[in-house]
Design a protein that fits this description.
It is a single chain. The protein has 14 helices and 24 strands. The structure holds flavin-adenine dinucleotide (FAD).
């Protein structure tokens, strides 16, 4: 910290740092630790108490925690993963999809290196390492406003009941989904010609989710699997076993759909399951371990930077938990903001940290690392699935043979090869006969024609997903080229909408 003014009895205190990081979650820790490691003077602000910080709503499923490409930067993930309290289950090797109402169970192999962690202990280890790397940490401190002129210049906060202003050259907003910090910035008033590139998200880009950690009296039979089950809206219920008797159970859905009463719906789901009879809540810091939150479920923001400001993690939409990228999306974007933010501040000569100065953050996320591109290019499936309706998505999944599910949604080719088509068709036919025999189409209140149309839309969607992937992989290296790049992307969106018949009201989220 460069300076502190005001006395302890004064109404408002003022402190100055090079970088203020708001949020003590994964993105905040990776950002603060990386910036400090690069030599910046950093404060990390967290609204929770020191004891409760690290307690985050999360399904606890984490892919390959020791892979440095997935968790880059100075945080020592190998040491964290070696901590017994953090890494609970090293045993997950499959994903199971149970659609019990229609008698469907799909079992897909899941790469080794996927784990379920104790999210609270993991969060606490991250905070400890971040402090060790030289970051000042302020707990019980709630950011409730920003200081801004031509750029964002700091944040207003209340620390232990007293107002404090933190001045900084750069604010990294890691406040989680729908951050109140971002909401406080007036982006139109920042100096960025012809307009700011920063994309202010809408609520439809997020999901809503809730989870509890339950301790069961007996071992569950699926302790090596991440189990998913359909919800009536676009989303799913999960059972993620931390151990054979400690299960993270939860559910989430996309906010573009009708709201689901999450807690009641979860109760309804587990009420009659034998393994949860007599189960009790695990405790965290003396209270039952249950939490809900919004989360990023759609594509990352087109641009995450504005003058003096970068947003990361869930708030930047750079997290997609359904495809295992929630925690690591926060890690990658946090790392990038810390690294490129510290450099922009260090090299700044005109006292103005512009969008162009911060642009390497966007470029890293989309091109140099590429996680942003991976998440963004899968988003057409969210669009297509929401358009098809959950009944058709469920029937389509039931029709698809397990081995071909990945082919339909993950090929890098622009056209669907003849061999794939023949394999797929024969598998679909086989499953269709079974579904007929079991009256599945009637149960789901849909028709074979509608479900086949949905499958056709998914194949078309895959072609657009591949095109989008190539477009995002060409994300502009400089800010000047951004506007043209965005126009082309918008044209690709419009083409997908037309191809699969997205109504105008749903075409832009
Ligand atoms: C129910 C649920 C289940 C999930 N399951 C998984 C999963 O199984 N696997 C996976 O990879 N991902 C999962 N995710 C997503 C994952 O948890 C998030 O992507 C990740 O935690 C995002 O990290 P973050 O640092 O961006 O935000 P957060 O973890 O939300 O951290 C934000 C921090 O900022 C603090 N903060 C917010 N506002 C202020 C303020 N005004 N002042 C001071 N501090 C503030 C908060 O207290 C919090 O500590 C799940 C999310 C939810 C909600």
């Amino acid at each position: 910290m460069d300076s502190a003014t005001g006395s302890s009895s004064a109404a408002s205190q003022s402190e100055s740092y090079e970088i203020v990081v708001v949020g003590g979650g994964v993105a905040g820790c990776f950002a603060a630790a990386t910036a400090a490691d690069q030599g910046a003077d950093v404060v990390q602000i967290e609204r929770k108490s020191e004891a409760k910080a690290g307690h985050i709503a999360c399904g606890d499923a984490m892919k390959s925690p020791t892979d440095p490409d997935l968790y880059p930067g100075p945080i020592d993930m190998t040491a964290i993963a070696a901590t017994d309290d953090v890494l609970i289950d090293g045993n997950i090797d499959q994903i199971e999809w149970w659609d019990e109402d229609i008698g469907v169970k799909k079992v897909l192999p899941y790469d080794s290196g996927s784990n379920v962690v104790d999210r609270y202990e993991f969060g606490r280890e991250l905070l400890r390492q971040t402090a060790t790397l030289g970051v000042d940490q302020e707990f019980n401190t709630v950011v409730n406003g920003v200081v801004q002129g031509e750029q964002v210049e700091g944040v207003e906060a209340v620390r232990d009941g007293r107002p404090v202003t933190y001045h900084a050259d750069l604010v990294i907003d890691a406040g989680g989904s729908l951050s109140t910090v971002m909401a406080a910035v007036d982006f139109d008033e920042l100096a960025a010609a012809p307009e700011t590139t920063f994309e202010e998200p809408q609520y439809r880009q997020f999901g809503s989710a809730y989870r509890e950690v339950l301790v069961t009296p007996e071992d569950v039979p699926y302790d090596n699997a991440l189990v998913g089950k359909p919800l009536e809206e676009l989303g799913y219920v999960w059972y993620f076993p931390r151990t054979a008797r400690e299960i993270n159970v939860g559910l989430g859905f996309q906010m573009s759909e009708e709201p689901v009463e999450l807690v009641d719906r979860l109760r309804e789901d587990i009420r009659d399951r034998p393994e949860y009879q007599g189960a009790e809540h695990a405790e965290v810091d003396g209270t039952a371990d249950k939490l809900g939150a919004a989360l990023g479920l759609r594509r990352p923001l087109d641009s995450m930077v504005a003058p003096g400001y970068i947003t990361v993690g869930c708030n930047a939409g750079a997290t997609h938990p359904i495809s295992g990228k929630g925690i690591r999306g926060a890690a990658v974007t946090g790392f990038s903001a810390g690294k490129h933010g510290a450099r922009a501040v260090r090299e700044d000569e005109d006292g103005f940290v512009s969008e162009a100065d911060l642009w390497p953050h966007n470029y890293f996320v989309y091109v140099e690392h590429g996680l942003g591109t991976t998440i963004a290019s899968k988003d057409p499936y969210n669009v297509a699935a929401a358009n098809a309706g959950m009944e058709n998505v469920r029937a389509a999944v039931a029709l698809l043979p397990e081995t071909e599910i990945a082919d339909v949604v993950s090929s890098a080719e622009d056209s669907f090869g003849i061999t794939n088509a023949v394999d797929l068709a024969s598998g679909v036919l086989r499953n269709a006969v079974d579904l007929y025999r079991n009256d599945v189409f009637e149960q789901l209140d849909t028709s074979k024609r509608a479900v086949l149309a949905t499958l056709g839309d998914f194949v078309q969607t895959r072609i657009y997903a591949d095109r989008l992937e190539r477009h995002y992989a060409n994300y502009p290296e400089t800010r000047e080229e951004f506007f043209e790049w965005r126009d082309t992307r918008d044209a690709l969106d419009a083409a997908l909408d037309e191809q699969i018949g997205i109504p105008a009201r749903d075409s832009k989220y």
